[in-house]
Amino acid sequence: MSITNGRDAALEALRLCRVEERFAEDALTIVCEELDTREAALAYHLCMGVLQKQSYLDFCIEQYRKTTHMQPVLLDILRIGAYQVLFSDKIPTHAAVNEAAKQAALRSPSAVALVNAVLRKVAAFRTTPPKLPANKLEAVSIKYNLPLWALNIIDAELGGDHAEAFAKASGNNPPTILIKNPLKQADFSQLTPMHGFIDAYNYDGQVTGLRAFQRGEFLVADVGARIIAEILTAAIKTPNPNIWDTCAAPGGKSFLMAMLLDDKCSILSTDIAEKKLSKICEGAERLGINSITPMASDASKALPNSLFDAVLCDVPCSGFGVLRKKPDIRYKAQNTLTRLPTVQRNILENASKAVKSGGLLMYTTCTVFKSENENVIEGFLGSHPEFSLAPFEVKGLGIRADGMTTLLPHLHGTDGFFICLLQKAE
After folding, report:
1. 204-209 contacts: CB < 8 A, separation 24 or more?
2. Residue 418, beta-bridge partner list
């Protein structure tokens, strides 16, 4: 069946995620290849929306469907329809229901009446939501589509009402942030800077087609990534420093460090996946950055032939800080994360060997779990007395840290990032 519209593209993308275990971004790239911009945008909106809200959509649907057994494709059709009637202000309910019925008719004609009936009843939940479980975390898990095991950890580690606030913020659509490129001449006078950041701007719309993007006048990045780059570069006291970005692809933090240092530096940007290096090359060329050298390398084993003024270990992690951008992460099983601290510690251990005396070592993740953050650092420091925590400040967010901090979506408006800055003794 050829794909000619956004709803069918979203349905096929969900199938690819479910059956072939593809990431949503990859699935959408495949199914939207032949669609025009408008239909591709609809597919992205619906697929990502369903993945963000799936547990709540399923809970609403289950109030009215008469069978516990349903073809996966029909359940996906119901999810797409329910997302539209409950969360999309621009799509009328009757249009969403009719389009879902058309999709069902092509795949299982006998189910058209069921799809029609369920979606018309679910639409009432827009004004009168269904009654959720009495247990608060169970209710939060359903409402904001975050695994109960993850909520239990966040509740235990952060306390208070952080679990619900984090879950709610992680279900919002992420803003598009433009970071102004100081290496290029650009006019941003029509945009309002984000509070506390003179070079970061909110933008509403697609950016890749903008001439300013093609000319490299800005980088699209979360403010949290910008903060990481600023903390590290501000702490470097050596002119024209050499820096190793150990897990660099697709290059965002390397670009940000180069921009903040006015390209007066030397950055080795390595990644274990050689096929991802082209993204670093393309980005550096577009932004007019000459200080970056991409190279394929396993940072947990290999070492460059030189020592560095600063080393950034932005390590692989569970990703629970970037749920706004990558809703697929919600569906990871808890036991798939158990190996990560070992991987992270191995990278940190190996990379620390490349730090000059008096140099800096930064460890960052885009997750909020202590097992991947504070615990890794505590273990590392316990066996490396030559390193110590280095205090830093984030002026834009009013943060003063004694070497470690965690940025949280509901508190700071950024993605979730753990940041730790270490310094090696002279």
Report:
1. 204/176, 205/176, 206/37, 206/41, 207/176, 207/178
2. 365, 406
Please give the Cα distance from 320 to 347 (Å, whole number): 20
Residue 113: predicted pLDDT: 94
Task: Find, among 303, 214, 293, 205, the residue nearest to 251 by Cα.
Answer: 293
Amino acid identity of 115?
A: V
Angle, in degrees to the nearest 10, between helices 72-87 and 93-107: 170
pLDDT at 187 over 90: no
CB-based burial of residue 389 (10 Å sphere; 0-12 exposed, 13-18 middle, 19+ buried)? middle
Positive/negative CA dihedral, 212, 216, 218, 224: positive
Task: Look up residue 368 and give its amino acid.
Answer: V
CA atoms within 13 A on the CB side of 110: 2
Residue 108 and residue 114 in contact, taking contact as beta carbons nearer than 8 Å? no
**CA torsion sign, 78 to 88 to 320 to 20?**
positive
Q: Provide the pLDDT for residue 147.
A: 95
Angstrom distances, CA of residue 190 to CA of 14, 175, 203: 38, 17, 10
- What pLDDT is recorded for position 197? 87
Q: If 0-12 CB within 10 Å is exposed, 13-18 middle and 19+ buried, where does residue 356 land?
A: middle
Q: CA 47, CA 23: separation in Å to the nearest integer? A: 11
Coil vs helix vs strand at 40: helix
Q: What is the pLDDT of residues 72-131, one digit of tens each?
A: 999 999 999 999 999 998 899 999 999 999 999 999 999 999 999 999 999 999 999 999
pLDDT at 370 over 80: yes
